[in-house]
Design brief:
This protein is α/β, with parallel strands linked by helices. It has three domains: 104 residues, Lipocalin (Beta Barrel), CATH 2.40.128; 237 residues, Rossmann fold; 81 residues. The chain is 32% helix and 26% strand. The chain has twelve helices and 17 strands. The chain has a nine-stranded antiparallel β-sheet. It has an eight-stranded mixed β-sheet with strand order 10-11-13-12-14-15-16-17, sandwiched between helices. Strand 12, helix 2 and strand 13 form a beta-alpha-beta unit. The radius of gyration is 25 Å and the shape is globular. It starts with 9 loop residues before the first helix and ends with a helix. GO terms for molecular function: hydrolase activity. This is Alpha/beta fold hydrolase. Keywords: Hydrolase.
């Protein structure tokens, strides 16, 4: 709710109105906060929160009021209480931010923060490039959309062995752009310099590709990857029998699934691909992120039980309206004070076609049919796709297939994006200047060189 200050506070309420910014002094990855305060002549206050590093925008505080000489902000959703005093010159709020049993100093300065400098990304390729780039379009022959991408070709006559890059979950452009990084641009540059033709493409409904992303599932993205393989095999600059798939995250899983399908890739590189079921992955992902964030065991346990209940509802209730009706009370119990419309939006997202399909996806049957060479890598700091259980499941599945050309490796200190990391949390991705570990690039390049030229 929005609290009403006494009329005596009306002038101070007007003083507080505006934008404020500061850095929360947490011990790990201190986030920048932006608080927007509105005040009326009657003394009514309202406030909203932005956390740019976590992509939070306009999250309303459930309470905003003046108590004597202090500003109090409350968020039931975040479990936050911020109490601060305004400086004599009206330019600074000094107080403490309390959240889930912990507290940190927070000083807010008036105004919006200065725009951050452009991120340093030293691995982004810079022209002139020692290879050729072609903008291409290809059709999914199974009735899917026309997709657009970039084909890079090494210097020289060719034909060349080739690699298709398959992106992770969420709407991704051809560079898999994230937090100022362009991992696929860096990968394509590295592999093309090593003599491979490389195709990277926009997801359906993203960038210059046709189609609709919102209704697509992993099966649709698999079909798109297979269309990219088929397209490359028709290019005169490419060796048609030496075309492989390199996928990241969901794309790594798609690459493995393609290995069990007709006309499989000649070789597969799975980067942080899934080996366990979608349900198991999502539960482990939540636990690892919460642990890395420093959440106490009791709170993490409550959140896990809620997540388990939500996933069970989705898997046992095939129709969305009754599923959402059952999910909203569970979300409300876990997040009191959050508007029901917000909870309904969350439940709707969790019952999307992609989420439902991914939740029930189990790669094991497909893995047991993969006969082509496989390189599976994951970083020990990955909190999105846990390296231990997923790499072990991939190993077991490929062994069941009798596949003897399998290389599986955990890379020490690397996160989900294969950056050298401290915590592995997604909030850290943009703070790291490295886009892709050079040692990981070398492992990939050496393995491909040994397998694609046989």
């Amino acid at each position: 709710m929005v609290s009403l200050a006494t009329p005596a506070h009306a002038q101070q309420a007007r003083q507080l109105a505006g934008d404020w910014h500061g850095t929360l002094a947490t011990p790990v990855n201190p986030p920048q906060l932006i608080v927007h305060i509105t005040g009326q002549p009657t003394g009514t206050l309202a406030a909203a929160l932005d956390v740019p590093s976590q992509k939070v925008t306009g999250l309303a505080f459930s309470g905003a009021e003046l108590r004597q000489d202090s500003l109090i902000l409350l968020s039931d959703f975040l479990g936050v209480r911020y109490a601060a005093r305004l400086s004599a010159d009206g330019q600074q709020l000094t107080g403490r931010w309390k959240q889930n049993g912990e507290q940190w100093p927070l000083v807010l300065q008036r105004g919006l923060p200065a725009p951050p400098p452009p991120p340093v990304r030293p691995q982004d390729p810079v022209a002139p490039l020692p290879y050729r780039e072609q903008q291409v379009r290809f059709k999914n022959p199974g009735g899917g959309p026309e997709l657009a991408g970039t084909l890079t070709l090494p210097a020289g006559k060719g034909p060349f062995p080739a690699v298709v890059l398959v992106s992770g979950s969420g709407p991704q452009d051809r560079d898999e752009s994230l937090a100022g990084h362009h991992p696929f641009r860096v990968l394509a540059d590295y592999l093309t310099r090593r003599g491979f033709a490389v195709l990277r493409y926009d997801d359906r409904g993203v960038g210059q590709s046709g189609g609709t992303f919102a209704t697509a599932t992993t099966a649709d993205f698999l079909a798109d990857a297979q269309a990219a393989l088929a397209f490359l095999r028709t290019q005169t600059s490419v060796q048609p029998k030496r075309v492989g798939l390199l996928g990241h995250s969901e794309g790594g899983t798609i690459a493995l699934l393609a290995g069990a399908a007709p006309n499989p890739p000649a070789f597969i590189v799975s980067l942080a691909g899934m080996g366990v079921s979608g349900r198991e992955l999502l539960l482990r992902q939540q636990a690892d992120v919460l642990r890395a964030s420093g959440l106490d065991t009791a709170s993490a346990g409550r959140m896990r039980r809620t997540q388990q209940a939500l996933l069970t509802v989705i898997q046992t209730t095939p129709d969305n309206p009754p599923a959402i009706a059952r999910m909203v009370p569970l979300l409300k119990q876990a997040s009191p004070g959050v508007p029901e419309s917000t909870l309904t939006t969350m439940a709707t997202q969790m019952t999307s076609p992609w989420y439902r399909y991914f939740l029930g996806l189990n790669p094991a049957p497909a893995l047991a049919k993969v006969k082509v060479p496989v390189l599976a890598l994951n970083g020990t700091k990955d909190v999105q796709v846990a390296p231990g259980p997923n790499l072990e499941a991939i190993r077991n599945g490929l062994q069941a297939a009798g596949n003897r050309d399998v290389t599986i490796q955990q890379l020490d200190g690397l996160n989900h994006l294969f950056q050298t990391a401290t915590t592995g949390l997604p909030s850290e991705y943009g703070q790291i200047s490295e886009t892709f570990s050079p040692s990981a690039l070398q492992i990939i390049g050496n393995w491909l060189a040994a397998h694609a030229r046989r």
